Amino acid sequence: MTSFVKRMTLTVITAGVFILSGCAATNTALSKKDLDVQTKTSTAIFIDPVAPAKRTVYVDVKSSVQEFDRAIFKKLLKDSFAINDNNYRLIDDPEQAQFILSAFVLNLEKASPSASEQALNQGYEGGILAGAAIGGAARGDWKGAVAGGVVGAGVDLVSGALVKDVTYMLVCDVQIKERTKNGAVVKRATDIDTKVSDHGYTKQTVDEISNMKEYRTRIVTTANKANLKLEEAAEPIYSKTAAAMSGFF
Asked: Are residues 249 and 59 in contact, defined by beta-carbon separation less than 8 angstroms?
C-alpha cells in the first residue's frame, strides 16, 4: 500500500470517527437533555397508626460523605414533613417523640447504570458499606462500546469529550423506631462482629429489652442527565430522598 493510499485511508477513518462520535453525542444530548430523578426503597415500611397527639418524629441524619450537605437535606426533610397529609410533625426531643427516624448517607457519587440496583439489592446495612462493592460499581465504565480496534478507541475519546451520559447516586440507610403501645416490651438479641486487626475479630452479643420497635430499609436515589454536574443533581436528589422518608409516615 502506497503512502498516499495510507494517508487517504487514515483520513477516511478519522472522518468516520468524528461522524460516528458526533451522532452518538447528539443522540445522548437529545435523549438525556432533561433531568430524571428516581427513588427506590429496598423494603416497604408500615408503621402503626397513632393518635394525632402522638404523631411526632425526631430526626437524626448522619453521613460519611463529604459532598453531602446535611443542612440542606434536613431543611428539605422538614419541608416535606410540613406538607405531610397525615399531619406528622418533627420535634427536637427524642425522649418525647413517638418515632425516631435515623438516616445514614453512605454514598453520593457518579454511578454506572447498574450500580443503583446493586446498592438496592444489598439492603439496609446500618451505615456499614463495603467501599469496593459500591464504589467500584458506582464508578463503572462511561465510554461507549464501539467495535473496531483503533477506530473504537477514537470514538470513545472524541465522544467522551463532547457529551457524557452521567448518573449520580445517593445511598441512604434508614431506621425508624416506634414506641410500643400499652407498655408492651420488645426483646432483642444482637450479635456484633468487630474487626480488631488484620488477623482477628471480636464478637459482642447484646440482649436487651426495649419499648421501641424497629423498621429498617435502604433508599437509593439517582439523577440522570447529559453532562450532569453534582451541583445540579444534589438538591433534586435530596428532595426526592426526603419525600421518600416522610412518606413512611
From this structure: no
Dihedrals phi, psi of 224, to nearest 5 degrees = -130, 135
Q: How far apart are CA 241 and CA 247, in angstroms?
A: 10
Residue 187 bridge partners (DSSP)? 209
Q: 35, 234 in Cβ contact below 8 A?
A: no
Q: What is the CA radius of gyration of the chain?
A: 24
Q: Are 114 and 186 in contact (CB under 8 A)?
A: no
Beta strands in 77-140 (DSSP E): 89-90, 99-110
Nearest-angstrom CA–CA distance, 212 and 85: 25
Facing residues of 223 across strands?
37, 168
Q: Residue 203's pLDDT is what?
A: 74
| Distance between CA atoms of residues 88 and 49, nearest Å | 11
Domains of the chain, residue spans: 34-141+164-246
Run of H or E residues at 22: helix 3-31
Q: What is the mean pLDDT of the chain?
A: 78
The DSSP code for 113 is: T
For 55, 150, 162, 180, the CA distances from 49, given in Å and listed in that order, are: 9, 63, 53, 12
Tens digit of pLDDT for each residue in 48-63?
Answer: 899 999 999 999 999 9
